[in-house]
Amino acid sequence: MVPPHPPSARSRRPAPVLVAVAHGSRDPEAPRTVAALLTLVRSLRPGLRVELGHVELNEPLVTDTLEALPPGEAVLVPLLFGRGHHVKHDLPRAAAAAAHLRTRIAAPLGPHPLLVDALAARLAETGRRGARALDPQDGGVVLAAAGSRDPESAVDAGRTAALLSARLGGTPVVPAYASAAAPTVPEAVAALRAAGRHHTVVASYFAAPGLFAGRCARAVPGLPVARPLGAHPALARLVLHRYDEARAAPLPAREGGLARAS
């Protein structure tokens, strides 16, 4: 569990601003869900300045959020679950453009046991049919993610799937993707059924509703689908954990502009 006031917070230097970076979505529920998550983050760390920026589609964009901050330090925490293009390219570019800030970039949220806590809790909400799909004997779980052309993103999803399977007592968990990678959600469901897994539930590997979360849910009508992770306490603790990890990293040299957590 992330302590409300880690030892580093007792230093005289003000804590870096936590800039949570969401992807952005045209779904009006997405910004409301992210706002609720950040309200929970603030409640766990009173006094910490927490700001929001988006990669695209919603305001403020992360570049605007960083530009509006006073000179000092900031930690960018991606509300994303793997090492894809946004984490590797978009965030470093945004940080480098904010020349008045000393900026670190945290690791993406996945994989991590706290993320598995949130996934398991959302699966538990799917009711009786969802519970049947969690049976290690004949059940199966599809971990529905956005997808990326970066192979490291699929590696991260696979590691999360393995952690979730262990949490569920050995129930198979198969990653599947809405775009840019295979298998699709229907293909993963079919593979589980071919292996004798006749009861299947879909875990939503998304922080908030949006295009890809909706696409994954619509692709398998009739199956139980867990809702996006949203303002789950474990996800809020994970945001702070990634912030603390990145904050503990050495500050970058002035000419470098940013540091990235491993």
Automatic annotation (TrEMBL):
Transmembrane segments annotated in the record for this chain: none
InterPro entries: CbiX-like, Sirohydro_Cobaltochel/CbiX
Keywords: Lyase, Metal-binding
SUPFAM superfamilies listed in its UniProt record: Chelatase (SSF53800)
Source domain of life: Bacteria
Pfam family, one: CbiX
Name of this chain's protein: CbiX/SirB N-terminal domain-containing protein
